Amino acid sequence: MFSNASNFVHGVDNAFLFILGVSLFFLVALTALMIYFVIRYSRKRHPHAVQIKDNTALEITWITIPMILVLIMFYMGWEGFLPMRQAPKDAMRVVAIGKMWKWEFQYPGNKFADTLLLPINKPVKIDLFSPDVLHGFSVPSFRIKEDVVPGKNNYSWFIPGEIGEYDLFCTVYCGVSHSYMHGIIKIVKQEDYDKWIAAIPVRKALPSNNGFKVLEKNGCVACHSIDGSKSVGPTFKGIYGTSVDVTIDGKPQKVTVDDKYIKSSIYDPNKEVVTGYVPGMMKSYKDIIKENEVKEISDYLKTLK
Q: Full-prediction pTM beyond 0.85?
């Protein structure tokens, strides 16, 4: 029996079941035919090979039937896919931010949450954004999957039809903690959504600073917070001028976070890894961030007391 989790379930499942049915039919039919020919035309029964003349009608049949079946599969797949790219103009807008290695969602009014909570029976368009690497936005229960590509505008949309919780996965290998990039979509009544969204505080506007703009442009704030909260990498808040424990060539040491250390961390991030963080998570930005931009980053970090 079909689920009503989203408006795309029926179209996708119809195409899947048709293809599955055709595949199973030919699997059984061809296997049975193969066994029949092995027995019917074995060497014991026919010790001498006989030339068999071609059969035009048979050849036309086995070309025509598969062609018709493939065209039906294409039509059913296209009929299920086309509505996925035709989001209603009045759909509710939410931004899904996929970053190493978690999902974050931006709601209207500059409100953010780690959970995608939506009202039932209301179309929603999910704008997909990645500040770092390639991710995949996939909700199997809704039969949707879209790539989240840095620098590319993409989206997904659906109409949730059943109240409940649904799994959200990243379906593209995006680094060492890819398997932990799991999210939850909660579908609730409209009044419950209104109460929930009203309780979320509005996030303050990010500071206007050249150094911060460099960090934001290169996706650094996706892994390093500026407010002291824990993230994939060490927080930027209050780090400048402090001593941190690092591992250099497998040996623990203490270093001072100064202009030299910041430059080294940007250009050779795995040379001095802060204790408690996994090496290899950050790529080198030597050919991406210029030296004058590194200086701007250092000047900005000095302000985060």
A: no
